[in-house]
UniProtKB/TrEMBL annotation, chains A, B:
Organism: Chitinophaga agrisoli
Superkingdom field: Bacteria
Organism lineage string: Bacteria, Pseudomonadati, Bacteroidota, Chitinophagia, Chitinophagales
Name used for this protein in its record: Crp/Fnr family transcriptional regulator
Residue spans crossing the bilayer: none
Residue intervals of the Cyclic nucleotide-binding domain: 31-117
Gene3D superfamilies given in the database record: Jelly Rolls
Length: 192, 192
DNA sequence: CTGCAGGATTGATAAATGTCAATCCTTTTT
DNA sequence: AAAAAGGATTGACATTTATCAATCCTGCAG
């Protein structure tokens, strides 16, 4: 179970994980299983853990006054999830995170993460690598949101994250793109 | 001149900068001045430097086939600029960065940055802090783009970055918000 | 099988936003 | 002081996208 995580870390770090590092990692992460629709985080709560997704699919979203959901992030196996602001600052989150598919996680608390960060070089390197990729991806998504039409954003998603289309229903894809489900349906028909 | 940078770094790091660290920093950063409208980076070029803005105002944007500009980022004194993807990967950038006001920078190359990162703890800490803040800010901007109306996005900008409104013309603010200048003009009239 | 629940699609219509062209300001240049 | 340039505003109109309501699917629970 931890092998998947250890493999992931070493693939995203430059230095290898020592046997001791591996033990520390195994000791710090706790396994958790979520059923479909189960919350990992609810608005108003503090995001206590950073979770590595072993299997399954989750979404992070807000709910506005009118009850409309807006998905800011999807996650599937091999991705991490948490509300970073809440996790790092200890403040209540404005987001919900829940499982769309039955999901298995490995979770670590902030304290243990900081500890690992300072004792296991591969963890530090992986963090930097993920920050880098995250920053680049965020920039692209912002650019897409402000400069493309609904159809272009959809076609872009098909190119960049086709797996999302397999794993999440269309109404969630629409929410992620910032358009209504009806508009997405029409775009898809249009695009043959 | 370097004092502004050193002060900035120490304010965003936990460990203090040693005298030796300060010398290394001074040796690594090079001063550069841009006139109004001068490019710091042009689409197709590689972003060779990470720049700290001492004074002035810049924007990072794309130009599409129709010649329309879309601003993804503003920068003023105390902010950093570069196209991160291009800077880190050495790939040609899709963005332009140019000076809106006359601007003074301190620039560092990737090689020197990596070197500083590995020898000056405060640089490493500052980088982590900036990544954290950048990730949180990016998340908020994505959320704003997919879930708010044009008017709400504008009012949100007024709250979060009022200085942008002072420093950049309205057509650039509109571009940053992903709306047309006419729409922004009408929103502002509307909002009394 | 049958019925239902969760989505997806479709049509009609409304609302938001973009586009184009004219005009109005201001500030800078000559 | 006049002219030019860069923005901002306004009106008319076009286009995109949202909203609402009615079906339509399709998989699965009884």
């Amino acid at each position: 179970m931890y092998d998947i995580l250890l493999k992931y870390i070493s693939e995203h770090a430059t230095s290898p994980i020592t046997e001791e590092g591996a033990s520390l990692i195994r000791a710090a992460f706790v396994y958790k299983k979520l059923r479909r629709k189960q919350y990992l985080l609810q608005e108003g709560d503090v995001s206590k853990y950073l979770s590595f997704i072993l299997k399954g699919a989750i979404r992070q979203y807000t709910v506005n006054e009118k009850g409309m959901e807006h998905i800011v992030r999807f996650g599937i196996e091999g991705w991490w999830t948490s509300d970073r602001e809440s996790f790092e600052m200890g403040t209540p989150s404005r987001y919900n995170i829940d499982a769309w598919e039955e999901t298995e996680l490995l979770q670590i608390s902030r304290e243990k993460y900081v500890e690992l960060f300072n004792t296991v070089p591969a963890i530090q390197e992986m963090t930097q690598e993920l920050d880098r990729r995250g920053a680049i991806a965020a920039q692209k998504r912002i650019h897409s949101a402000i400069s493309l039409t609904a159809e272009e954003r959809y076609l872009n998603l098909v190119q960049t994250h086709p797996m999302f289309l397999q794993r999440f229903p269309q109404n969630m894809i629409a929410s992620y793109l910032g358009i209504s489900p009806e508009t997405l349906s029409r775009i898809r028909k249009q695009s043959k």
